[in-house]
Amino acid sequence: MSDILFIYTSNGLHKERFIISIEVKQRPKRREQRLRSDQKMAAAPETKTVHSPALTYFSMLSLLSLCPPFVILLWYTMVNADGSVAQTWNYLKQHGLQGFIDIWPRPTAIAWKIIFVYGAFEAALQLLLPGKRVEGPISPTGNRPVYKANGMAAYFVTLVTYISLWWFEIFNPTVVYDHLGEIYSALIFGSLIFCVFLYIKGHVAPSSTDSGSSGNFIIDFYWGMELYPRIGKNFDIKVFTNCRFGMMSWAVLAVTYCIKQYELNGKVSDSMLVNTTLMLVYVTKFFWWEAGYWNTMDIAHDRAGFYICWGCLVWVPSVYTSPGMYLVNHPVNLGMQLALYILVAGVLCIYINYDCDRQRQEFRRTNGKCKIWGKAPSKIEATYTTTSGETKTSLLLTSGWWGLARHFHYVPEILAAFFWTVPALFNHFLPYFYVVFLTILLFDRAKRDDDRCRSKYGKYWKLYCNKVPYKIVPGIY
Ligand code: NDP
Fold first, then answer.
1. Distance CA 143, CA 300 (A)
2. Where are the transmembrane segments (predicted)?
3. CA-to-CA dists, residue 476 to 20, 353, 357, 472, angstroms
């Protein structure tokens, strides 16, 4: 799906480099040759691909064209077709394209109003709430983004405000559920326009030297151009789209679904409670660790384009929240014991996922001078050369969770998603779509990250792979 590696050139532009060779030998002479060839890439487009270029373009165009209608079909099936894919399929077979156009809700004034008020509120919190000054990782062109770590405060203020509005009968969150289709429709179009804005901004007013064009409109639009786009000096666009709009909407919608079920049935089922609690624990963990997220691939490597921004603005509020959306109309009574087992298993997975991320970041922050599972960490000192010719060193942790498999942290991530979906039991497949999607996304991501690290660290990555041979699941894969 995503086999593109971004390489920066000394003049700050980037080129998409498609990885063809896994073998990267990092002998000094070869490094110089690579550096020279990377610099040449600034002038001449690279044409080698892991998959064929045709397949790469096909997958980009497919995602661009299929994701928007999928969001609408998912909402329609969950809310209006009893969660049954077969029912939606039969409807489409009967009514064809016109039937699909008929079920696509038009963005209404109320939908735009909800989105605008929510977005403006989150933007204001991002700008105004106090927070510690945090530095992000140094970028390939030598910039170090600076952030205000006020995510947890924004999360707390958002949920307290939302629940208070409901409690004091100022705004009923069920309005959001009742206009969900229109809201998704508005988000789909609004976010596409926003991605065009990002594309134009990348061309005419990039915020830093971590920006550039591949010379190809589709790639620039899909993968983005800027790594750290900002409005003014302080308003970080990716923090807004990924964290304060996308991840925050996950929590807000989880609460909305709960309230809607309460309004419909006069009570909240234990399945809904387990689902909402686990999703809220997950999102709370995210905001607790938000500054750590600013060191991950999403922020430090993936640029602001359709892939990441449209994904966070539309895909997260719709697909990520979909198990809860399904449960609104399908309350299941699990019984206290089963509900508790699922809850505990889910919390444990979220904790392990958090601990993997924490371990890696603590290890890097202390330069390896920390304890991993009570012992001094085992590590590899990996040197690499930047495109400007500087030699740098990174430490690779080879013990703890990172000694089990190179991307073990994806296992508890997938299992946690399974545990907040399984309260829906197994009457329909659709609630499990997110788990399936996440599994594909993370397996693809592990490959993408391995390719990037292999290309960055060469023989040191090979050494890591020899020491920790499994990619994701210890002993299996
Ligand atoms: P990270 O960016 O956190 O980790 C990968 C990076 O860590 C590599 O690029 C490399 O960067 C560095 N690294 C790799 N191996 C080691 C090692 N052994 N020791 C030290 N550093 C190493 O990964 P992700 O962004 O994929 O994941 C972050 C979190 O986000 C996870 O919890 C994941 O589950 C979650 N996630 C959730 C998704 C969802 O949709 N729900 C999607 C994606 C992620 P460097 O260049 O610095 O060496």
1. 11
2. 55-76, 110-129, 149-168, 183-200, 304-322, 334-354
3. 25, 19, 22, 8
| 6 within some domain | no
* Residues near 414 by beta carbon (within 8 Å), at least 6 away in sequence: 435, 438, 439, 442
Q: Please, which residues have CB within 8 angstroms of residue 402's CB and are 6 or more apart in sequence?
A: 356, 359, 360, 363, 396, 408, 468
- Whole-angstrom distance, CA of residue 300 vs CA of residue 296: 6
Phi-psi region of 396 (alpha: psi -120 to 50; beta: other; left: phi over 0): beta
- Are 327 and 342 within one domain? no
- Same domain, yes or no: 439 and 377: yes
pLDDT digits (tens, 9 = 90+) for 49-102: 455 778 888 888 999 999 999 999 999 999 999 999 999 999 999 999 999 999
Separation of alpha carbons 441 and 149, rounded Å: 28
In a domain, 163, yes or no: yes
Judgement on whether residues 364 and 380 belong to the same structural domain of the protein? yes
Whether residues 327 and 340 share a domain: the answer is: no
The CA 289 to ligand 1 mean position distance, Å, reads 13
| Nearest-angstrom CA–CA distance, 142 and 388 | 9
- d(Cα 150, Cα 132) in Å, to the nearest integer? 7
Domain that holds residue 348: 334-476
- CA distance to 10, 27, 138, 295, per residue, from 388 (Å): 6, 17, 14, 21
The pLDDT tens digits for 281-298 are: 999 999 999 999 998 888
Instruction: Say if CB 74 and CB 326 are below 8 A apart.
Output: no
Token representation of residue 350: 């979220």
As for ligand 1, residues whose beta carbon falls within 6 Å of it are: 296-298, 353, 357, 360, 394, 396-397, 402, 409-410, 413, 438, 441, 445, 449, 453, 456
